[in-house]
Amino acid sequence: MRTTSHFDDRAMKYLAHFRWLAVIMVGLTLCVVLLRYLFSSSTIFLQELITYAHALFFLLGIPLGILRDDHVRVDLIFSKLSEEMQSIINLLGHILFLLPLSILMLFWSTPYAISSWQIFEGSNEVGGVPAIFLLKTLLPITALMITLIGLSKSYQLLKTLRQS
Asked: At what angle do helices 132-163 and 99-118 cross, to 10 degrees?
């Protein structure tokens, strides 16, 4: 239990830093708007950078939401159940849905990212961000984090159910 909670604490510490990407996205969007309307200019690089920040924010926010148990669920009935029943439902959700989906995502997205790295895929736009391969790498990284967090949470739920 100690190792899984240690893993969860470290993951939460690092993933929580990415919340600042929302502020960065707002700042970049403001720059794009000011450039366009005050100086009649635009830059593809800044516009794509907003897309990259958006992707990074959400793809790293998914594992954080699962880690903090903030993810979406129908809470009408769940909140009225006993802790033991909630743990059983969460465990089944992890085993039947979260882990298979994250493993499938990892399986499908890894070759996609590798092929992008092989050609150092960049933007199709002139002056765009020359690092689409980094953006595509976020998919298997997110899948791996979801898998690890799902395994950690499942282990904790099993320990909780065994103790009750």
From this structure: 160
The percentage of residues in the chain with a pLDDT greater than 90, rounded to a whole number, is 43
CB 106 within 8 A of CB 54: no
User: Against a cut of 0.90, is the pTM above it?
Assistant: no
- The contacts of residue 32 (CB under 8 Å, 6+ apart) are 42, 43, 46, 47, 50
Q: Which two tokens stand for residue 96?
A: 């039947």
* pLDDT tens digits along 104-122: 999 999 999 999 999 999 9
Q: Quick check: 42 and 36 in contact, CB under 8 A?
A: yes
Distances (CA, A) of 33 to 26, 37, 50, 117, 157: 11, 6, 12, 32, 48
Burial of 153 (0-12, 13-18, 19+ CB in 10 A): buried
